[in-house]
Amino acid sequence: MGKKILVTGGGGYIGSITSDLLLKNGFDVAVLDNFSRGYETPLVFLKDKYGSERLSWKNLDLTTDNLEKFFEEVKPDAILHCAALCNVGESWENPALYFRNNIFGVQRLADAAIKTNIKNIVFSSTCAVYGDAQYLPIDEKHPLANPSSPYGATKKMCEEILNWYAKVDLLNYVFLRYFNVTGASDDGEVGDSKNPSFHLIQNAIRGALGIDKFELNFAAVDTPDGSPIRDYLNVVDLANAHMRSLNYLLEDQGKNEVFNLGTGAGNSVLEIIKLVKERTGIDFQIGEAASRRKGEADKMIADISKAKKILGWEPKHSLDDSIQTLVKWYKLHPKGWNK
Length: 339
Ligand SMILES: NC(=O)c1ccc[n+]([C@@H]2O[C@H](COP(=O)([O-])OP(=O)(O)OC[C@H]3O[C@@H](n4cnc5c(N)ncnc54)[C@H](O)[C@@H]3O)[C@@H](O)[C@H]2O)c1
What we know:
α5 (about 95-115) packs parallel to α6, α7 runs parallel beside α9 (about 270-280) and α7 packs across α11 (about 320-330). By secondary structure, the chain is an alpha/beta fold. It has 11 helices and 13 strands.
């Protein structure tokens, strides 16, 4: 029997694609999700693909439900904690919702893990913990002085909570600070179901395929073309980094590390739009959003040398790969997963 991973948020974009990769590589998976933003449909799809003895899930809310009982039933070897609210714009409108869901959620998760003797946690963090870059590329030692949004602040606080539990030797962690995630599974069968998405490339492809109107919503910044520069990482490469982090904790007796995950290269918003137009061959209309985003950093590019060195990980997919898989995904699921 393979090692069993409890994936929180496994009904979401990154959680479902990571579950697919874990199952493909011999892990068993138990998902916890309240399906507030995620879907059972990708899990039904994965159950058909890998069998019900290897994948199960339960509709539970991290902030209110009895987690210990579920952890005792599942007895996972490690937890991959992807569940969170992660819409930056929404976090500015309703910070309290984000503080409660993400911070209280991580505290309850950690407490239940400790009580049920689950020691290892891989945590989905974000480059939003860094705020404006003081230098580029951003390595893991970059100060976390000023997260770029209430959402980013919740992730920083979650890291602090887990770090204190680790300091008193109750947990081992790996924090994965993702930069911008894009693409779908390589076969295009599992993807980002946010409808509309709040990710640039996803929305540009939706615009190109005529699913939604594409609108510019970035704040003007100090870059050569005036649009923000971001580091776009393919979601399957990201899933692979999760698997390596789990192996690092479970097999290599590693503990308590932080890794930036990106590609080490950046593209501006306007470059991405041009690229999507070229690669799809569709010259779609660009609209103007009613309001522009807040707290936009000029340039965010990851230094990924630590993940390369310690996890032996590096991205294998190009931006073109991400665009192609998103085109497949949105052609198969123009409206995302059915609830
Ligand atoms: N998508 C990105 O570009 C990106 C970048 C950096 C970090 N992250 C982090 O990665 C993780 C996954 O992101 P995603 O894009 O897959 O988001 P998503 O919204 O698709 O998935 C999140 C899942 O968590 C579940 N969830 C939320 N609150 C819950 C709760 N209280 N109890 C149980 N389940 C709950 C939702 O129902 C959803 O299925 C998040 O933690 C996010 O902060 C994402």
